[in-house]
Structures are given as C-alpha cells and as structure tokens.
Write a structure and sequence with these properties.
With about 350 residues, the protein is an alpha+beta fold. It has one domain: Aminoglycoside 3'-phosphotransferase, Chain: A, domain 2 (Alpha-Beta Complex). It has 10 helices and 10 strands.
C-alpha cells in the first residue's frame, strides 16, 4: 500500500500483487466495497478509483485512532451494519447476482478430521455425534444467506476513526449469514492472528449491540443459531493457521503431537478455548439444541487436550488473552513509488 495525494487530498493506493487467486481476491474486494458504500454513516473507506489490469484500488485515507477499552462494542455495531448492506431490505432484487461467492462453511471432511482428533487423543465419541455433526454442516451450508460478510473481520482490518469503525481488506468477502461472523467475538476470532476472548459482560454488550444495529438496519431479527456458528468454527482445523497454510494438510491431525504459535496464541490454546465455548453454549441450551453429544465430546476433548505439553509458561494456558486497545492498532501505509501499470 502507498499513501499519496490527489488534488491535495490524501488517499491510499492498494495493489494486490501476483499470487494464487489474486484476480479473484481483487474482484471480491472491489465488489464488497461498492456494495458497502450504500451504508450511511459509512462502514468502509470510499472507493475512489480502480485499475483492474494492475489490480489497483484508490481508497479514501482514514485517520486511525487508538481504540477505546470497549472497542468490540463499536466493532460489533459496525459489523452488523456492514452485514446489512446487502439484505433484501436495502438492496433491489437481483443486484447481487454474480458479484460475490457464497460463504464456504465446514464440510464432511472437517467432521472426519474432528472425529479423528478424538480418536487420536483416546476420547470416546458419544453415540450419534456423527449424525449431529452432519446435520450441523447441513444447517450451516444448506440455506444461502445474503449478508455482506467481510471474510476476515479481524482486529487490524478495522479502522477506528472519529466517525466510527470502518472495515478494510475485503479480499475474502462473501455472501452468507451474519451470525457466522458475529460468532468471532465468542469463539476467539478464528481466522485472525489476534485470538482473544472478551470478559463475559463485554461480550454480552457487544453481541447485544450487534443485534440492535441489525434490527435497526433491517427491521428483522438476526437469523441463525450462535451455538451452531461457534460449533462450525470448532470443526475447521484450517482456522488454526494463517491463510497461506490453509488447505495444505489436516491441521487437527497435528494437534496430538505438535503445537505452534500464531499471533497471540498457540494452536492448542485456540482449540481449548473453542472447545470450552462450544461445550458451555450447548450446556446453556440443553433441551433446545440438537448438539448434546457434541457438548459432551467437547468437554472430554478439552480435558484431554489440557494434559498435553504446551509452549506457554504459567497456569491457565487453555484460555485466550483479553482483547486490548493494542490489538486494534495497525501499521500505516508506506510511502513509496506508485505501482507501475502492467504492460
């Protein structure tokens, strides 16, 4: 990225470099920014210009400010308003056709991997869990959603400005159900380097803020089940590694004999948190959810996981750190020569 001036006004110039899927990632970002531009007050920087051949975007320059202590509340509010940008209430029928792909949820292969982890750790799988997990995958992927999903709504991909939170870096944007990204707050930001877990009162405030903002923007209640969304992220071993390593191997199969750090937490630390969240959520909805067997399995798996060696010193390693203002800090665009146009 570069910082520049156009007609005396500061702008940011972003170029997506050559690499796997670069053209698709560029198209997703442009489409998402254009769709989100209808939201007022804005939740994204203005898209001022594009050069598809060079994969260049010219964006409004935003002045980032240090986030408040309770930054996830404003984050959740802005996330709901972003998601609502493409609901049927705010977008004419047909305008989304072909713009963005549908969100890709967990698969049967993820279920196989998760149950394989239980076997590797010597944890018995309760009867019926396979049926529960197959039904969960069907619920998460069977009904297309129309919310504008960021795809990677991590701290650092949000800019805290005087006018509120705005999101950037939409290379993984998709259409789906907003609940799968609302779950980030509870499950620990699964695709992000900065895995954190807010204290319960702050989490409740943020989730309430999301639901309130969604209702104000759409006139409807949030669709989907938060426990299902969290369980879906639990199944996905690729959410234990950064993007470049996803799809390369079965990450959950590494857990019994390996642990690795990514950002603020290790893989076993992230997984222990997710297991605890899912077990607790299922226990809180006993008799309502169809995931009772998974709840018992998650409890037993977490207990087995905590007996493994770990890389962190001190007690309580199975918990994620609290979010802090520093998590929201991000580097400023560099100042350098502008990208050359492709020949």
């Amino acid at each position: 990225m570069w910082r520049a001036e156009l007609s005396g006004s500061p702008v940011v110039i972003k170029q997506l470099v050559e690499g796997p899927g670069a053209d698709e990632r560029y198209a997703r970002e442009v489409a998402a920014l254009r769709l989100a531009s209808r939201v007022r007050p804005p939740v994204v920087p203005a898209l001022l210009g594009t050069d598809p051949d060079a994969r260049v975007l010219v964006l409004e320059h935003l002045e980032h400010r240090p986030p408040a202590e309770d930054w996830i509340v404003g984050y959740a509010t802005a996330l709901a308003r972003l998601h609502a940008a493409t609901t049927s209430v705010t977008v004419p029928h047909g305008v989304l056709d072909g713009d963005l792909p549908d969100w890709a949820g967990p698969t049967g292969a993820d279920v196989d991997s998760f149950l394989g982890l239980a076997q590797a750790l010597g944890v018995p799988v309760p009867a019926g869990v396979r049926v529960e997990l197959d039904a969960l995958v069907d619920r998460l992927t069977g009904t297309p959603g129309h919310a504008l999903l960021h795809g990677d709504p991590c701290p650092g991909n949000d800019m805290h400005t005087a006018d509120g939170v705005r999101f950037i870096d939409f290379e993984q944007a998709a259409l789906g159900h907003g609940i799968v990204e609302l779950a980030y707050l509870r499950i620990g930001f699964p695709t992000c380097w900065c895995a954190t877990a807010p204290a319960a009162p702050l989490l409740t405030a943020a989730e309430t803020a999301y639901r309130t903002a969604w209702r104000a923007a759409t006139g409807t209640e949030v669709q989907g089940d938060l426990t299902d969304a969290c369980a879906g992220w639990l199944l996905r071993g690729d959410a234990l590694v950064q993007r470049a390593h996803r799809g390369t191997t079965d990450q959950l199969a590494r857990i019994p004999h390996d642990d690795w750090r990514w950002g603020t937490a290790t893989a076993r630390q992230r997984l222990a948190h997710r297991l605890g969240v899912v077990a607790g959520a299922i226990a809180d909805t006993e008799g309502i959810t169809d995931l009772g067997g998974l709840g018992r399995l998650a409890t037993d798996l977490r207990a087995a996981l905590l007996t493994l060696p770990h890389r962190l010193k001190g007690r309580g390693w199975g918990y994620l750190p609290r979010p802090s203002r520093a998590v929201g800090e991000r580097p400023q665009p560099s100042i350098g020569p502008l990208p050359a146009r492709r020949p």
